[in-house]
Amino acid sequence: MPEPAVPSVAPPAPAPHAGSPSALRRAILLHLRRAGPSTPDAIAASLASSRSGVAQQLRALDGAGLVSRTSVRHGVGRPRHLYDVTTDAQDLFPTDYDGLATGLLAAILEVGGDRLLDEVFAARCRQAQALVRERMDAALPPDAPVAARVRELAQIQDELGYLSEAVIEDGTIRLLEHNCAVIDVARGSPAACAAELELFRGVLGTEVERVRHIAAGDRCCEYRVAVRAPSAPAVSGG
Question: Between the N and C ends of the chain, which has fewer C-beta atoms within 10 Å?
Answer without folding.
Answer: C
